[in-house]
Every structure is written in C-alpha cells, then in structure tokens.
Amino acid sequence: MSYTITDECTFCGVCASECPVEAISEGDDKYMIDPGLCTECGLCAEVCPVEAPVEGK
What we know:
There is one protein chain. A two-stranded antiparallel sheet has the order 1-4. The chain has helices spanning 14-18, 43-47, and strands at 3-5, 24-26, 31-33, 53-55. The protein is globular, with a radius of gyration of 10 Å. It has one domain (3-55): Alpha-Beta Plaits. It is of the alpha+beta class. It has two helices and four strands, in the order βαββαβ.
C-alpha cells in the first residue's frame, strides 16, 4: 500500500521536495500523497520532522 500523510503534518513541504516521483502535493491543511503515483520508497517518511507519512494507512 502507498504511504499516506496523517494529521500530524505541519505543512512544511520537506516530503514533497524529496519525493522522486512527485506523488506529494499541497492539500488544504496538509500534504497529500497520490496513491497511484507513490512507489512506497519511504523517502517522505525518512525526511519528515514529525513522522507524518505512514505506510499503508
């Protein structure tokens, strides 16, 4: 399953700049991951300062 971003997201944008397939975009109050583009590489989770991206939720 692709990664998703929880409500812990602080809207910093670090994850979006690290995503190699540009699957992460700005939502209304947090970033969103397009499950059709996500390759489950985990880079977003590695760079997130608040651990908002989680696998398969």
